[in-house]
Amino acid sequence: MNCGQTMEKETLFEKRMKELSKNAYYRGVLTFSDFLDLNELHMLQSLPKNGSGVKVETFGGYALAERQMAAFIPDALFFQQDYPISCICIRPASEKFAESLTHRDYLGAILNLGIERNKIGDILVEGKTAHVFCHENMAPFLLQELCRVRHTNVVPELLNALEELPSLKTEKVSGTVSSVRLDSVIALAFSSSRSSMISLIEGGKVFVNGKNILSNGYNLKVGDIVSVRGKGKFRFEEVGGITKKNRYHISLARYC
User: Fold this and answer.
1) Mind listing the pLDDT tens digit for each residue in 108-149?
2) Is 22 left (phi over 0), alpha (psi -120 to 50) or beta?
3) CB atoms < 10 A from the CB of 189, how many?
4) Which residue numbers delimit the RNA-binding S4 domain (predicted)?
C-alpha cells in the first residue's frame, strides 16, 4: 500500500469514527464500532475529543486483547451495556486425526466463509483448540458453517464462561539498553545484535501497535506492542533508572 492509499484509508477511518461518535451523541445511545486493529486503536486514541460529549472506551472480549471494539458512550447515558462480542471454542472432531493448526489456519478458514476481517477479534490458539472472538451477529453463522480447518474436521461451540479461556503466556525480559530506540529494544527482546535487527526493520518486518515502522531510530513508549515477523511479539512494559554508564533499565513482556 503506497503513501497515498494509506492516507486515504486513514482519512476514511477518521470519518467513520466521527460518524459513530455523532450518532451516539445525537441519538443518546451506546454505539459500537467493528473490531479495530492496533494501528486503528492508536489512530482512534489520537483523534481530538474536546467537547464531543461522548466518551470512548475499548474492549476485545478479554483483558489485553489486541483487536478491540470501540464503544462511543454519550455523557447522558446512565446504564451499561455489554459489548456485542461472542467467543467460540473450536475443537477437532477427532483428536487423534487433528493437525497442528496455527492462527493463520483458523483465520483463513473463517475468512473463506465470506466473513469480513473487522467482524473477527483475537484468535487464541492453545494446543489443538482455538478460541475465536467475533461480533455476536456472526456467531450463529460460524457455529453452523465452520466445520473444517485445513484438513481437520472441527466442532465449534459457543463459550459462555470466559473463565474457560486459555491464559496469555508471557515471559519477562529485562536488561539495559543505550536508548529506547526500536533497534536497541528488539535486540534485547530477542537476544540479538542491533545490526541484525536493522535489516529486519528496513525490510518491513517490524510493527509497532500494528503500524509498519521502517526507522531503526523510532523511540518506543511504555505500553507499545511490537511484532517482529519471524521472531515474535512483546509489550514494552517499563523504563527504570539509568546506570552510571547512562544506559536505561527496561523490562518487556514477551509473548510465548
Assistant:
1) 999 999 999 999 999 999 889 999 999 999 999 999 999 999
2) alpha
3) 23
4) 180-241
CB-based contacts of 64: which residues, under 8 Å, 6+ apart? 168
CA distance 150 to 164: 25
| SS3 category, 108 | helix
Q: Is the pTM of this model over 0.85?
A: no
Cell 486503528 found at: 40
Number of Cβ within a 10 Å radius of residue 3: 7
Calculate the CA 152 to chain-centre distance: 26
List Cα–Cα distances, 30 to 35, 55, 84, 149, 185, in angstroms. Answer: 16, 10, 11, 36, 40
CA distance 41 to 70: 8
In terms of Cα–Cα distance, which of 171, 193, 179 is closest to 237? 171
Nearest residue to 251 (alpha-carbon basis) of 171, 175, 191, 190: 175
Q: One-letter amino acid identity for 219?
A: N
HSE of 55, CA atoms in CB hemisphere, 13 A: 7
What is the distance between the alpha carbons of residues 144 and 140, in angstroms, rounded to a whole number? Answer: 6
Distance separating alpha carbons of residues 193 and 20, to the nearest angstrom: 45
Q: Which three cell numbers stand for residue 231?
A: 521472531
DSSP 8-class letter at 134:
E
pLDDT attached to residue 238: 94
